[in-house]
Amino acid sequence: MPTILIIGATRGLGLSLANTYASQPDTIVYGTTRSARGPKAGKEVSERIVWVPGIDVSKEGCGRTLVNQLGMLGGGGGMSEGGVRGLDVVVSLGLIYFVFSIFYFLFSRGNGGRRERDGVDVNWG
């Protein structure tokens, strides 16, 4: 019985992956959402997705919150009692914005492979 965690599963590619995994028998799919609850099950959202609310990767401590909530839901170990299941697949789409921001910083405004920001000298090339 595979257990899947998709960080950033409320729309787009994340939701598509969550629905695809959830359509497979005996698969448990956990999907994170920044809001207090996940999207309502319906035509576009599988009722088999277990939503992990309040996970915002831009906030400090989101990793601890995620692990604790997974533990309470019975998946992914956890720092609280109840977590006994490991994760077979983890897909993190919640960090895509962060990664794109880094690439933008490094490559779109460089000065011959060098850029300074907040007193830090960044070199590449």
Please give the oligomerization state of what you see.
single chain
Mean pLDDT: 75
Low-confidence stretches: 117-125
Main β sheet profile = 4 strands, parallel
What structural category characterises the helix and strand content? alpha/beta
The gross shape turns out to be: globular
Strand tally is: 6
What's the number of structural domains? 1
Fraction of helical residues: 25-40%
Q: Into which percentage range does the β-strand content fall?
A: 15-25%
- With strands numbered from the N-terminus, the spatial order across the biggest sheet is 3-2-1-4
Account of the protein in words:
With 125 residues, the chain is α/β, with parallel strands linked by helices. It has one domain (3-94). It is built from 3 helices and 6 strands. The chain has helices spanning 12-22, 62-73, 96-107; strands at 3-7, 28-32, 49-52, 89-92, 114-117, 120-123. The strands form 2 sheets. A 4-stranded parallel sheet has the order 3-2-1-4, sandwiched between helices. The chain has a two-stranded antiparallel sheet with strand order 5-6. A hairpin with a 2-residue loop joins strand 5 (114-117) and strand 6. The protein is globular. The N and C termini lie far apart (46 Å). The model is unreliable at 117-125 (pLDDT under 50).
